[in-house]
Amino acid sequence: MIDIGTQIAKNGYLIMAIYVLVGGILMRQNWKKTLRSVIRAAIGVILLTLGGEIIMRSLVSLTYVFQRSFRVIGILSSNERLLAYTDSQYGGMLYGIMLVGMAINLLMARFTRFKYVFLAGHQVLFMSGALAAMATYLTLSPVVGILGAGILLGIMMTIFPHLIQPYTERITGKKEMAVGHFSSLGFLISAWLGKVFQKEADEPLRKKSGNGFIDDHIVATALSMTSIFLISTILAERSYVEDITGGNFYLLFALEQGLTFTGGVYIVINGVRLIIQEIMPIFQQVAKRFVPNAIPALDVSMLFVYQRGRLILGFIGSLLGGVLAMFVLGSWSVWVIIPSSTVYFFSGSASGLYGYSTGGKRGAILSSVLFGFALGALPILTMRLLSELGFYRVVFTEIDFQVLAGITMGLKRIFQLLGFAG
Question: Is 14 exposed, middle or buried, given 0-12, 13-18 or 19+ CB atoms closer than 10 A?
């Protein structure tokens, strides 16, 4: 007899649909609106999975040509790829951690002085997937893993926005909004690094609109990934590439694969958006009722309306730092982290803004380059965690992920020394 509970736990789209259904009932929505939300949320998880599969197929192609070109093993850091892997393996635990984390965040915001309600739903998804992998690495039972990791997630959702809030206020000039993003420790260090240059003026950055094509992260991803494919393909030699692709013209192969990867990212992002669109209204209504004076912690992209020039400065600086890390690692290791323009666009650009908030342009350059270098180097140190779970050539991406992964590996080592783990 099929265990229905186990089947539901293995399918993330069912967990998400049940959560939205229960939320709609608690909010006393009419059945048509609730059904619409349930379907959209389930489709969002399906899109996330499909997009992840497209990304992975494209990365397989990149792996072959990159290794041939540079005589190293290239690994692309990608939040979407990690989420796709963990969703397929630990879907039930992932969404369980997410729901517990949201509840803890609301409780802490309600009963402590930290009034931040974390509304960057995609970041919660990414971190929930990472925590599910870490809980499995520590061989925790599903119940203990969901509760323990969920509580930790809720604490981070509440405390991390608070840590960077003084610098967020310098950027936005507003006290009524915060940033919810799991590179917060990296942003905090970026702001500290900026202080090296002791910016004279502490006025908030002026708002500036912009319509540059590089402001579109999908275009930036397409350009960056296609460039990486083209360079790798050319260096790998035409005959080799056309041989492994069944005779396809090598330059067209590079163009197609770069755009295919970007298409996968686009599908994943839209899947995440569907999930967020259905979860966040429920979350916001609960917060409004139970958390007076709540401060919304929004996606880091909300900072991007402030000085487009400084935004791109952070993006370019962090990307250069990532490329530098790639060559440094390549000099002593066959494993290198290929810069992912999606991560560098969002997190790297923001690190530049935080560096600018305390150190002006020089602070932005210093902080973003070092931030990008960290994004490119730290994953090598924590890659063993995921490889032991069978996730080969997959790495944690954001700075906060690296810190938690390092702590998790340390705990596993302590457990082994004490005889609590094999």
Answer: middle
Q: Are 279 and 41 in contact (CB under 8 A)?
A: yes
Q: What is the token pair recorded at 35?
A: 């059904």
Q: How far apart are CA 158 and CA 107, in angstroms?
A: 10
- Nearest partner of 262 among 51, 121, 87, 79, judged by Cα: 51
Q: Which amino acid is at 309?
A: G
Residue 191: closest CA among 370, 342, 321: 370
Q: What whole-number distance in Å separates Cα of residue 237 and Cα of residue 69? A: 8
Rounded to 5 degrees, φ, ψ at 294 are -65, 145
Task: Please give the C-alpha separations between residue 20 and each of 6, 87, 104, 132, 395, in angstroms, as whole numbers.
Answer: 19, 18, 18, 21, 30
CA distance 117 to 94: 20
Residue 77 has pLDDT above 60, yes or no: yes
Instruction: Write out pLDDT tens, residues 120-164.
Output: 877 888 899 999 999 999 988 889 999 999 999 999 999 999 999
Residue 170 has pLDDT above 70, yes or no: yes
Q: What is the DSSP code string of 53-92?
A: HHHHHHHHHHHHHHHHHHSSEEEE--HHHHHHHHHHHHHH
- φ/ψ region of 297 (left if φ > 0, alpha if ψ in -120 to 50, else beta) reads beta
**Three-state SS for 29?**
coil
DSSP SS3 for 209? coil
Pick the closest to residue 313 from 367, 277, 271, 267 (CA basis): 367
Tell me the three state secondary structure of residue 117: strand
Phi, psi dihedrals of residue 357, rounded to the nearest 5°? -60, -25
CA 63 centroid distance within chain = 21
C-alpha 107/C-alpha 31 separation (Å) is 28
Q: What is the pLDDT of residue 367?
A: 94
CA pair distance 169, 173, nearest whole angstrom:
5
Residue 10 confidence (pLDDT): 53
Q: Is 4 helix (H, G, I), strand (E, B) or coil?
A: helix
Phi and psi at 296, nearest 5°, equal -70, 130
Q: In sequence order, what DSSP letters do the residues of 123-140 get, joined into one string?
A: HHHHHHHHHHHHHHHTT-
Q: What is the pLDDT of residue 97?
A: 93
Alpha helices in 237-307 (DSSP H): 238-244, 250-290
